[in-house]
Each structure stands twice: as structure tokens, then as C-alpha cells.
Amino acid sequence: MAFEPSPVARQRPRVLSGIQPTAGSFHLGNYLGAVRQWVALQETHDAFYMVVDLHAITVPQDPAELRANTRLAAAQLLAAGLDPERCTLFVQSHVPEHAQLGWVMNCLTGFGEASRMTQFKDKSAKQGADRTTVGLFTYPILQVADILLYQADAVPVGEDQRQHIELTRDLAERFNGRFDQGAARPTFTIPDAYIVRETAKIYDLQDPAVKMSKSASSPKGLVNLLDEPKASAKKFKSAVTDTDTVIRYDTEAKPGVSNLLTIYATLTGTAVPELERRYEGKGYGALKTDLAEVFTEWVTPFRQRTQEYLDDPESLDSVLAKGAEKARAVAAETLATVYDRVGFVPAKH
Ligand code: TYM
């Protein structure tokens, strides 16, 4: 592998994050909670971003759909502003070290510790024990491996991932504590979660008590970026608010209105207090109609760009191949240290 990170890149702190290709279209929560930060961080950090297809198969996937959705996810990331010259964009299964380190970390994790992961508890409760795979149970540990392979300093994610980052820190410290005796440098960097408070949790438009999610009970609360903008505009216009009329940011008393203000503020780069001033004396209808327009204006070119990337699958695949090569160079180095420190006999080549 010829790639050597440039000295400039090495001087920057490193970030890593991933997104599942399960739903086809990203939703607004994915974009505002995570992807938007990824785009900004590629300017200041040595950034690694991936489409996590290994994680996707923890629930049943149709093979043709998974393949299409993986390319679709990469196309959306590029359309959102990731630049392969500024960051490393790759597909998780192209880098075998993820599964390899995942196994080692599985063997360091307590069964009870893994059982306490709330995302697993929620998902497995919904699916029932017989339909829940062991892969779903060990999902967070594969995520731990994803992060530790790259020696990431920070992991830009939404609030729902916080517990997985805490597990990552715990396991990294456990490994270092157990295996680093006398070593010149620790095996793993201990990463921090990078969670932007304002957009850490974007809520369902119909039920502002729960996060926006692809598994929403009603599709009316979920804004998919690749849906017809007219359909999404309708969802904004029928968003659930409250019986009051004042447009004010107050997550306790007015979760629905506050969610709309957060989305509006982030998409336009306007401060929330400025929006409150602008909408003083106006009704919820005006806010919703304007937000529908703001969203449509933002999403229309996004959808066009996504389609352009999809129309050129050869270029897309070559971006991902280059990304995988860069990623593997880093991942292989970490895995070699891990295998050595764990006590595996080196393979003769
Ligand atoms: P995933 O694919 O479910 O979601 C991708 C990102 O979107 C964020 N997100 C939200 N943010 C705010 N409000 C919402 N309503 C909302 N819904 C989703 C998620 O927090 C996430 O950052 N386990 C991860 C994927 C993963 C990963 C990793 C992440 C695998 N390996 C290593 C970081 C580092 C997941 O399922 O994300």
C-alpha cells in the first residue's frame, strides 16, 4: 500500500464517523445531526468517513438493495459536500481490519456490558428474540473497532450514539491497561464524542417527543432527503406543534415549535433568537410554510447532485477504491500492533 498520510494531515486531529446504508435516503436527522458536521470537520481535521455495510447486515438485507443503497449513501455524502481530496471516504467492508479488530474487541467485552446497550435493547425488544441476530448484539463492538482502528480523536455523531462512544473509551482503556505494559506508546487513542448540542437530536415532525428515525411509526414525521420535495413540504406544513400561538424556543413547553426552529436556523445559518424576532406576532402557519420553502430550496440541488454522482458509477467506485486504500494503510498499522500485543505469532509472508 503506497499511501502515506501527508505530514500536514498528521498534524491535524483525526475524526472518524460512519452511516448505515439501510434506508436508501438519508433523513434530515442524519444530515443535521451528523453529516453536516462531517463536511465542516474535513476542513480542520484528518477526516475518515465510511458507509457501514457490515453494520447494515445485522438486520436482513436484500443483496441487490444493499449494493444499490451503499452507492446511494456514498453519492449522498458527496452531494452533501464531502470532498475526496479533503477527506477519506470509503466502504467499511472494503477494509477487512474492521471485522478482524471487532473480534478481538468482542473478546474484551463483558456479556453484561454489551447487554446494557440501549439501542440493542430497543431494537431487539421490537424485533423479538428469535429475529434478533448475534450480529445486532455485537454491533456496538464492531463500532468500537471502527473508531479505534483509525486512532480517532473525535467522533462526530448524534446524541443516540453517545453510549457507543462511551463503550469505545472503556474498551480502549481496558485494552491499553491490559496489553501496553512497557510499550513506548498506547495501542489506542481514547476518542471523544463530538456532538453539536443544538442539532444532537432532531425530532419526529408528528411526535416531537421521539427522535426522527427511519423506523418512525408514521412516515408523516420523517423527512427523507431524496423524497419529492413537495411531499416533504407537506410534512412540514402538517408538523405537530401545540395549542399556544407564540413562536418561541422552549424544548420543554414547545418541543414541536423548537424542533422547527432548530431545523430552520441550521438550514439558513440564522440564529434562533433572530427567528423568534422575525416571527413575532405571526402564526405557526407562516413558520411552517416558510420552513417548507427553505427546505425545498436546500434539498433541490442536493437531490440533483446525488443523481449526478449516481449517473457515473465508475467515478463513484473509484473514489471509494481510493478511500479504501488510504483507510487500509492506517487500519493495518493499528491491527498489526494489536495482534502483536495480544500475543499472536506473526504470519510469515
Ligand atoms: P446511523 O446510520 O443510524 O445514523 C447516522 C448518523 O445520524 C445521526 N442521527 C441523528 N442525529 C440527530 N437527530 C436524529 N434524529 C438522528 N438520527 C440519526 C446518528 O447519531 C449518526 O451519527 N452506529 C452508527 C453508525 C456507525 C458509526 C461507526 C458511527 C458505525 N460505526 C463509527 C460513528 C463511528 C449508526 O447507526 O448511525
Q: What is the string of SSEs from the N terminus onward? A: HEHEHHEHHHHEHEHHHHH
Relative helix content: 40-55%
* Order of strands in the sheet with most strands: 1-2-3
Q: How does the helix and strand content classify structurally?
A: mainly alpha
Shape: globular
Number of strands: 5
Regarding quaternary structure, how should these chains be classified?
A: single chain
Strand content: 5-15%
Radius of gyration over all CA atoms, rounded: 21 Å
Give the averaged pLDDT, no decimals. 95
Largest sheet: 3 strands, parallel
Residue windows where pLDDT falls under 50 for at least 5 positions: 1-9
N-to-C CA distance: 15 Å
Small-molecule components bound? tryptophanyl-5'AMP
Count of discrete alpha- or pi-helical segments spanning 4 or more residues? 14
Task: Characterise this structure.
The chain is mainly alpha-helical. The protein is 54% helix and 7% strand. It has 14 helices and 5 strands. It has helices at 7-11, 28-41, 53-56, 63-80, 97-106, 111-115, 118-127, 134-149, 162-179, 229-237, 255-268, 272-278, 284-310, 313-342; strands at 14-19, 46-51, 87-91, 154-156, 192-194. Strands 1-2-3 form a 3-stranded parallel beta sheet. It has a two-stranded parallel ribbon with strand order 4-5. Strand 4, helix 9 (162-179) and strand 5 (192-194) form a beta-alpha-beta unit. Helix 5 crosses helix 8 (134-149) and helix 10 runs antiparallel to helix 13.
